[in-house]
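Let's do one together. I've listed all components of the complex below, 839 residues spread over two lines.
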Amino acid sequence: MIEYEKYRLGNGLVVIAHRDETTPMVCVDVCYNVGARDEDPERTGFAHLFEHLMFGGSKHIPDYDGPLQLAGGDNNAYTTNDLTNYYLTLPKANLETGFWLESDRMLELAFSKKSLDVQRNVVIEEFKQRYLNQPYGDVWPLLREMAYKVHPYRWPTIGREIGHIEKANMQQVKDFFYSHYAPNNAALVVAGNVGPDEVFRLAEKWFGPIPARDVKPRNLPQEPEQTALRELTVERAVPNNAIYMAFHMAGRLQPGYFAADLISDVLSNGNSSRMYQNLVQKQKLFSELDAYISGDFDPGLFVVSGKPSEGVSLEKARAAIQEELDRMAQERVSEYELEKVKNKIEANLVYSEMSYHTKAMNLATDEILQDASLINTQIEQYRAVTVDDLRDEAARIFRGENCSVLNYIAKNS
Amino acid sequence: MINRKMQPPVSAIDRFDYIPTQKLTLTNGLPVYFINAGSQDVVKIDFIFEAGTWQQPANLVATLSNNMLEEGSARFEAAAIAERFDFYGSYIQLSADQNYGVVSIISLNRHLPAILEVTEDLIKNSVFPDHEFGVLVAKNRQRFLIENEKVKTLCQKKFTQALFGMGHPYAIKNTVEDYDRVTKQQVWDFYRRFYHAGNCRLVVAGKVDNEVLTLLEWHFGGTDWAGEPVLQFNYPVVPDPVKYHHVDKPDGMQSAIRVGKHWVHKTHDDYIGLSILTTILGGYFGSRLMANIREDKGYTYGIGAYVLSLKEASYLVISTEVGNEYVEPTLSEIQNELKRLQDEPVSADELETVKNYLFGEFLRDFDGPFALSGSFRAINDFGLDYAFYDRYLETIRNINPVEIQRLGNEYLSGDEWYTVVAGSKS
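Okay, and this is what the predicted structure of the assembly comes out as:
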């Protein structure tokens, strides 16, 4: 159980304070309710590029990192399809520097041309380093494009193509800032060795004067139900064939999400999981095999990805995966298996509570998703899942017409 | 109105108390270092064996031997071992590096009896079944082939080979043929020779109460897995006379770069001062390499300089991946930054920022049981004690621009630098 206090400023900013006296540090986490799903389809990768620009100086503070390092701080940020999260950690005595820095860049960015020019380039190099120049680096973009025809999850956070990033201009940057970066579209979480009164006092002082902004309610096109199997085969210069199967599944706040998560655990979490034991160890059909969920806020994907062993055809590999999926959809798992995957969820919850930093991030993302209280209540939803739920949810998900298959063939060089 | 232009006052947190490590010796002489810290009922136990690539007779043997531990023991088949860890939400991590083979377990305290029961058997009575061995080798082989497609992997391999010479265990030189050559006998012999109480120490962190210590004595304090400490091997370093290497990787969009040289050992008097110098150069986001090559030029997503301190040797390496067209300008900017640290004293402001940043890092490195355990290993592996950290803090407090420049001139000059670029030769 994680205890916290929540307070809303006049401008709409939600402030959450969690005290953890076992650390000499504090974490300041500012999570904005904007991600790649809010992008214009012709300007993808913008939310992430913008994350980089948030480090290029703000209205009153030309350099973000210098003063933070002077205070003994460290920071980072990430962008997902759903949100953009910024976090820093500091020795508790220097907490106010965190408020000073984060409030100024929420107030207004410097919008420096130099920063835009350089960060465009940095992001393009990131695009190459993490995706284009990596074996299997284009798998996710291909899968997304196949599985989604309408919803903005059809492109990855890095963007659909380098060209979109090259074209970003300052007016777009400003528009993006004023339409998404606002106290009424963010959550501020402070976790660590500080009490709520101090947190709320500093929040009023530094964030209170920031005006609320006109943030348009999100109105995303929802993905229509898929009605036929989709399949794509590509050839790439990689050492091994690979197969990917992506199924539509429930979003984070929909019934079925927790069962789907547990299904992925039964199939592939840990060496005792079904797919590892049956297909990797016993039958030696795969050298790598995973099942996982994308964890998206809106309806996301349940993905099975495998690299068949040498001499095993993709057809055979796919049939073996399908057999495991069918078994999930047709037969109940044992009570023991369900207990096992639930135990793991419970243990992971305890491990995550060891870190003030993890707690801050979880509180922030839960608040943006719906409400910070999810951090304590989600576990109940896992506990409530039954063996029947697993079978029924598997039957809903693992249907051929709900599936996109990517055959990734190693080109003989 | 608040003044948004002025940074709130900051203080340098340059003194603090850390939770000390305690030592206990089990009946059989096995040393147990433990740190009782943290608020959760969680414990992490590292079994550290002197069984790394330093000790191995052929490529792959140290890693395969280590990884085979969970593939079946006298009382538990591989599947039963996996089942036990998964059922209790516990984790076993097996890893082998240059000098050590490590078995790490993380568990809730209340499940520790069940977890240690299997851990004891897999460490003492592993059986290395043929089937599992075959699966493991095939899996690792495929993973190797994928890793070997990455420019950063190719670059790091060539870099360590140039630095140490092909006959040295710190040179990474695995080939795909090694996976066909390696035998179960080699891997089994390695296990029998190196995985015993005489070649082991334990580092335990988290909620370490008497119950935990009693369990450790019960499972690991006996003479049933005794062995003689293994004599130290020696290998000569044979640096490559050629200082620049290019590894061709056709069709790549980026090239990986490593620029580096041999460095002082962790026990050397200048080691701590040099780690401050390295931080200025490339050890944090505001470092000179990042400021110049990423934040000013935009050549890369990231560039850093770090010291890899190993038991028998250390090296400094500057590492990055850049678009092919930026290789030459990046190499030249790296040279400029190395030269600047020799030619000009660092400014008082920059030094103050680095000092405070390092004090903050210090706090992070000692925050929580897992961090404390890592910080302890970072000295214990080298035969150092906490006096090292006292000296570390004192050096940060006292170091000045003159000393930084002296270190720059003494250690960054000269022609002992190696440069390796892996990528498409455009």
